[in-house]
Structure formats: C-alpha cells, structure tokens
Amino acid sequence: MTALLIFMSLHGMSLHGLALLAQTPSMLLAQSPAPAAAPSRATLLGQSPNATLGQSLSAPQAQSPNVPQAQSPDELPAQLLGLKRVFVDRLTGGETAAQMRDLLISSLQGARLFILTENADRADAFLRGASEDLIYTDAFQSSEGINAHVGDSDNSSVGTSTRFNGAGGGASRSAGRSLNMGIGENESSSVKERKHEALATVRIVNKDGDVIWSTTQESNGAKFRGASADVADKITRQLAIDVDKLRRTGPNPKN
After folding, report:
1. Could you tell me if 214 and 126 are in contact, meaning their C-beta atoms sit under 8 angstroms apart?
2. Cβ atoms within 10 A of the Cβ of 100, count?
3. In total, how many domains does the chain have?
4. pTM higher than 0.70 for the full model?
5. β pairing state of 125-164 and 92-93
6. Separation between Cα atoms, residue 142 and residue 190, nearest integer Å
7. Containing domain of residue 100, as a range?
8. Rounded distance, CA 99 to CA 133, Å?
9. What is the pLDDT of residues 157-206, one digit of tens each?
C-alpha cells in the first residue's frame, strides 16, 4: 500500500487515473478484432485437386504474337497468286548450272508472272534447285555373217594286163568325181550418235522455308533450241499452267 502511494505521488496520479490505467488492457483486448479462423482440415481435404487442375486448364492461354500459325499443305500453293517478287537463287549441279539459271530468268521474265529481282532482301519467295546438262555419244555395233561350204570327192582306177606267147593285151579303167561348193557373206556396222540431254528440278520457297511449288523437267533438245533452253521453257510453261489453274478454280477448290 505504501509503495502504491509513493508511485502515485511521483507520477501525480489520482485514484481515478489509477482505475483507468487498470482497465486499459482489458479495454484494448475487447476492442481488438478477433483473428480469422484457420481453415479446418475437413475444408482442405474437401477441395478436389482435379478442380484446381481443371481451373488452370480452362484458363485461356496467352499466345505469343511472334509464333507463326501453321498452314495446311493444301493452302501453300495458293501463295503463288500473292507473289510479287521472286529471287532466282544459284542452282546446284555441274558447270552448266549457271547457264541454266540465266535461261530460267530470261524465260520467267518473258512470262511476266511476277517481278524477278536480284535483291534477295526484297523478294517474297525464292526459286532454288539443281540442274545438269550432258553431252555424250552413244555407240552401236552389229555384225552379221553367213558361211556355207560343201565338198565331195570320189576317185576310182582299175587296170588289167594279159600276156600269152609273146602277145599281150591290157585294159585300164579310171573314174573320178569331185564336187565343191562354197557360200560366204559377212556384214558389220558401227553407228555413233551424239546426244544432248538436260535435266532440272526446281522449287519455289517462301520466306518461312515452306515449299509452295515444285517441278522436274528434262529434254533431249527441241527443233529450234538446245536442251537447256527447252528445259527452262518447260519449267516456265508448267508454272504458268499451275498459276492459271489456281486463278480459275480458286485457292481452295471444293471437290
């Protein structure tokens, strides 16, 4: 009691203030909000893991704008109609591949299906492939012969001699036969033929690396042009036919 009076006198506290100080902890505890109840084990166990997985799978997935959408093989040839500039790349093959490239550029330029450019950065698609131009000689040899020989020989000789009292006589007989026949014929021929053959297989590839058109052509030479020029002309004609077919039937014809 004495210690309490000394504490009150040091702090200038009255009996009413001491009563309020005694009630402060209980008032603070009464005014503080009750802590949230932790979820029970039954609640945690009642939630199905498949529900959480289903919610995550049902959520829409954000697609990256940089990923190109896949195209079906039937849609690729229709890109021929949208080509504006094509770059004819170097062809692989023998020494005549460079000549075949120049012939292709000249033939395609005459068809005017699209613009041919020497700047690969401005091209919408690229024409690539391989070619071969061969000059060789075919040799043919044949030999035919008939030979027949027949021979027959027969020779006979008979002699008789008689002598009596100094007189004599004789007789002689001789016969001969001979037959010979021979037939012979022999014929041989050698033919050498110079041939010129050219072959090219080309494809048109878009910027994504997808092949949208391809063809293979070969020729032994035409009446008024060589084999390589004829192959270049056949490639251009085939491309023009396919482009015209797409224009008439549409990009996705219905069967």
Report:
1. no
2. 26
3. 1
4. no
5. parallel
6. 6
7. 96-134+195-249
8. 10
9. 666 666 656 555 666 666 667 777 777 777 777 778 778 899 999 999 99
